[in-house]
Amino acid sequence: MKRFILAAIAAVALGGAAYADTIKVGVIGPFSGPFALQGKNFKAGIDAYMALNGKKIGNDEVEVIYRDVPQADPAQSKALAQELVVKEKVQYLAGFYFTPDAMAVTPILKQANVPMVIFNAATSAIVTKSPLVVRTSFTTWQTSTPIAKVAYDAGVKKVISVVSDYGPGVDAENAFKAGFEKQGGQVVQAIRMPLSTNDFSPIMQRIKDSGAQGVFAFLPSGPTTLGFVKAYNENGLKAGGIKLFAPGDLTQESDLPALGDAALGMQTTFHYAISHDSAENKAFIAAADKAIGNPAELTFPAVGAFDGMHVIYKMIEATGGKQDAQKAVDAVKGLSWVSPRGPVTIDAESRHITQNIYLREVTKGDDGKYYNKEIQTFEKQGDPGLAAAK
Ligand code: PHB
């Protein structure tokens, strides 16, 4: 018995450092229901990152645990985050497609000693709710500011704004208005629709009645955006010459085949296009196509997740796998790398990503496929919404 115990102690002393720890990352997103494709893209981005970079950091092995919140549901998101922290003992929380789901979890981070890496949720204020939040996606302030200049330069002076009535929609409305008025344009009316709106015909009528030359719109990507752009076409607004300006959420690549000519020529501003021409993006696309199975389903949340995993790997490296949320977050402040979207930096003060925003136009390629063609770059954009969020 004594010999056995001594042998056991020796084994721990000698081999202890060699034993791999499992570092768990809890990912919350929509993996079923109408927005399941967006969650599938989180997973594709994660899988692509792990396929290219391995699952191990030193002796530690990364394990990803998924939890499904099908639609924006802050109570469910918070309950699942608590379960991940308490029962699964995750060291990192990540994902979060919808703003309310991220907002609901920020109050538990400090006590849980867990950083949150946001792969999508795009309301500026989220990063101000806890010093443990880092974001690798975009904000609607960041993506909607440049399109205001594009609209004005296209000769449109009167615009009606239409947004989903929640965080990123209100931010988008404010960003567009600020940018457009600065140019000398006028927002003649601002409509906020419930997130659940799926019949857009009455909205299209109000747009026509407003006398505006153009419409600015934001809705969260998914069935909502597909329905809105279809309605814009089917209700004769496109044919009537009312121009549609929006951030790229409205022309995500996975929707382009279904939209067809309805979206052709539409200009949007966004942080990422599948067509982005770079070596880093080619490597990403190859791995992500493989991960998702059907390349036609690949869309922007995959790149938010891919870069989010990069940040988490850096955090694990910096903490040596030990649970220290503040140290992990401090380690990625000011971190720069070349993402599939282009050069990026985690702003040291805000912990939000600084990146290029591209003007893109929906174009039909020689192969007959529609894509977002990048035609102009707004370099190194921070988040103009942070001042408003404070
Ligand atoms: C959000 O809820 O913050 C959100 C969701 C989908 C988007 C953009 C923002 O496309």
Automatic annotation (TrEMBL):
Residues 22-365 form the Leucine-binding protein domain. Residues 1-20 form the signal peptide. Keywords: Amino-acid transport, Signal, Transport. One of its GO terms (biological process) is amino acid transport. The keyword NADP does not apply. Belongs to the leucine-binding protein family. This is Branched-chain amino acid transport system substrate-binding protein.
